[in-house]
Design brief:
The structure is a single chain. By secondary structure, the chain is α/β, with parallel strands linked by helices. The chain folds into 2 domains: 217 residues, no CATH class; 231 residues, 4-Layer Sandwich (Nitrilase/N-carbamoyl-D-aminoacid amidohydrolase), CATH 3.60.110.10. 45% of the residues lie in helices and 15% in strands. The strands form 2 sheets. The chain has a 6-stranded mixed beta sheet with strand order 5-4-3-2-1-12, with helices on one face. The chain has a 6-stranded mixed beta sheet with strand order 6-7-8-9-10-11, with helices on one face. Helix 2 runs antiparallel to helix 3 and helix 7 packs antiparallel against helix 8.
Length: 494
């Protein structure tokens, strides 16, 4: 819990698995299956409730006006099914690793951990929220290895380090074995630091190898809270606020102006007056404008499809381009089919997923929009960069993160998309955290939480070259193979 925002003691992530490793890897104390299951569930429930429970409960209770009891039940359901059961699976699958040689134990536990993190990011609509490696987001020297194997490689090193330290303590009576385990722990740390120093220097030398000129981008954070955002009587006032902020002298000379998700909280495609206001802003500022809001599409049967969309207005264009969000958030943007049996208002509206990734072009830059939680799934950013994107732009409505560290956690995960793809990323959230991240994963600028702010940032192109952009989740799949082999061997050992 302490490793993640709001506490942000990220280095503790390297020791967080230590108690589990001490419990599982001691051959003198083999736990019964039911005990490992209970321990895994206890560890998973306490961790997930502690890290994400406060903001999930607050969002359900305040943003969606659910009762206290229903909010507690929803928080328990989400944290249990989307996080806790995966921690339990880690512990159960590792319950016989004490039978393995000491150095293998750490490799096996780390591989099982990453395998289930990888599974969590795909199963049950995907929930790659706060993987262990995400805790290091403020440590550029440590996170550079993400360009080799994604955040999975950082989780692997953290767990393997803890497991090696645990094995050294367990085997302290056998000095040579204990020293070997300590050597493994220190070697992993040194390798991570050494590669980090090399990668930072390499990326710095490659940044200038592109013909693109630096792009000046205005970040506009309107700070419109959850209760005011969707009030119909205020929708035009919200638009005027963003237009006024965008005309601020602080953004003079911007090449691009970015508004957050839901900055236009009505169907812009059916509102000519609002379209004209944004087109005028783009023309007068000689800057592209990125806005976001719902979009409708006629189905031909008297009904409409609804999308969560990003709109791009070019300075000299008479129309706009759109990108429709592909990865929708369950329970909020759509209700899973199984859940509709329990609660589905007759007038409930579900968003439809977009059909394809879309890039916008501005001043020669290819802009890749990522809406809200799309920035925590690494494969969207990776695919954009493979298609030639020069800048990742994450627009988000985080107004319902008003308790706990949800907003900061969301920002932390987005940092890794820049390192993995060696492509700069801008993030603009309705109430924060907004900011600029360069291709080395360094946080260049941030705007304060819950404040109406604008900031002009200069973005320089990254190299766009990384092993992860080419190979994808190859390291995670390797961990799956090692984990399966380790489980099989441990079950056969006496």
């Amino acid at each position: 819990m302490l490793a993640f925002p709001p506490y942000d003691l990220g280095l503790l992530a390297a020791l967080a698995p230590l108690p589990i490793a001490l419990m599982l890897l001691d051959p003198r104390r083999m736990l019964r299956p039911r005990d490992t299951l209970f321990a895994g569930l206890l560890f998973g429930v306490l961790t997930s409730v502690g890290v994400t429970g406060p903001w999930i409960f607050y969002a359900a209770n305040e943003f969606f006006a659910a009762s206290v009891v229903l909010s507690l039940l929803f928080t328990a359901f989400v944290t249990f099914t989307h996080v806790a059961v995966f921690f339990a699976a880690i512990v159960v699958c590792s319950s016989r690793f004490a039978r393995l040689p000491p150095l293998w134990r750490g490799v096996a536990l780390a591989s099982v951990w990453v395998s289930w993190e990888f599974a969590r990011s795909h199963w049950f609509y995907g929930c790659p929220w706060d993987m262990l490696g995400h805790a290091f987001y403020r440590r550029p020297l440590l996170i550079q290895a993400a360009d080799l194997g994604g955040v999975w490689i950082l989780s692997w090193v953290a767990v393997a380090t803890s497991a090696a330290l645990a094995s050294a303590f367990i085997e302290r009576a056998r000095r040579s074995v204990a020293v070997g385990c300590l050597a493994l722990a220190f070697s992993l740390t040194l390798a991570l630091l050494g590669y980090g120093a090399y990668a930072l220097q390499r990326e710095a030398s490659l940044e200038g190898g592109t013909p693109l000129e630096p792009l000046r981008v205005g970040l506009v954070q309107g700070n419109i809270g959850r209760h005011a955002l969707w009030r119909p009587s205020l929708k035009l006032e919200h638009l005027e606020l963003y237009v006024e902020l965008s005309r601020s002298p602080a953004l003079a000379g911007a090449d691009l102006i970015v508004w957050p998700e839901s900055s236009v909280p009505f169907f812009l495609d059916t509102h000519p007056e609002a379209q004209l206001r944004i087109s005028d802003l783009a023309r007068d500022s000689d800057a592209g404008v990125i806005a976001a809001g719902p979009r409708s599409e006629d189905r031909g049967d008297g009904r409409a499809r609804i999308f969560n969309s990003v709109y791009f207005f070019a300075p000299a264009a008479s129309s706009w381009q759109t990108y429709d969000k592909i990865h929708l958030l369950p329970y909020i943007e759509f209700l899973p089919a199984w859940a509709s049996v329990f609660a589905a208002p007759p007038d409930a509206v579900s968003y439809q997923p977009g059909r394809a990734l879309v890039m916008f072009e501005n001043k020669g830059w290819k802009l890749a929009p990522l809406v809200c939680l799309e920035a925590i799934f690494p494969w969207y950013a990776r695919e954009y960069v493979r298609q030639g994107a020069n800048l990742l732009i994450n627009v988000s409505n985080d107004s319902w993160f008003e308790a706990g560290g949800g907003a900061e956690q969301h920002f932390a995960m987005a940092v890794f998309r820049a390192v993995e793809t060696r492509t700069p990323l801008l993030r603009v959230a309705s109430t924060g955290v907004s900011g600029s991240i360069d291709s080395r994963g360094r946080i260049v600028e941030t705007l304060p939480l819950r404040s109406a702010e604008v900031r002009l940032v200069t973005v320089r192109p990254g190299s766009g070259r990384s092993v992860y952009a080419w190979l994808g989740d190859g390291f995670a799949w390797l961990a799956v193979v090692v984990a399966a082999l380790s489980v099989a061997v441990s079950l056969r050992q006496r």
